[in-house]
């Protein structure tokens, strides 16, 4: 199963005894498919056909390099 969690919090919010010194986000994921070779092949095939002027990639930490 895939799981993606984003927790966003503001400065001063508390969790137990912890107080957030600044606003931020905590992002975690458990996703085997998105970082797979199949998805990467689909991506490169699509951009070769579409030929975009700009590509912005995020979530690189979820990729599994072999």
The percentage of residues in β strands lies in 25-35%
Report the structural category. Answer: alpha+beta
Number of E-type strands:
4
* Helicity range: 10-25%
> In DSSP terms, counting alpha (H) and pi (I) runs of 4 or more, how many helices?
1
Low-confidence stretches: none
Side by side, the strands of the main sheet go 1-4
Order of helices and strands: EEEEH
User: What overall form do the CA principal axes indicate?
Assistant: elongated
Overall mean pLDDT stands at: 85
Largest sheet: 2 strands, antiparallel
Please report the distance between the alpha carbons of the first and last residues: 21 Å
How many distinct domains? Answer: 2
Radius of gyration: 17 Å
What does the model show?
Helices cover 21% and strands 27% of the residues. A hairpin with a 2-residue loop joins strand 2 (14-15) and strand 3 (18-19). The radius of gyration is 17 Å and the shape is elongated. It has two domains: 1-30, no CATH class; 31-66, no CATH class. By secondary structure, it is an alpha+beta fold. The strands form two sheets. Strands 1-4 form a two-stranded antiparallel sheet. The chain has a two-stranded antiparallel ribbon with strand order 2-3. GO terms for molecular function: ADP-specific glucokinase activity; metal ion binding. Keywords: Glycolysis, Kinase, Magnesium, Metal-binding, Transferase. InterPro entries: ADP_PFK/GK, Ribokinase-like.
């Amino acid at each position: 199963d895939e799981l993606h969690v984003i927790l966003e919090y503001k400065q001063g919010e508390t969790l137990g005894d912890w107080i957030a010194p600044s606003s931020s986000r905590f992002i975690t994921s458990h996703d085997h498919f998105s970082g797979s070779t199949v998805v990467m092949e689909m991506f490169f095939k699509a951009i070769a056909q579409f030929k975009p002027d700009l590509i912005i990639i995020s979530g690189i930490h979820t990729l599994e390099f072999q």
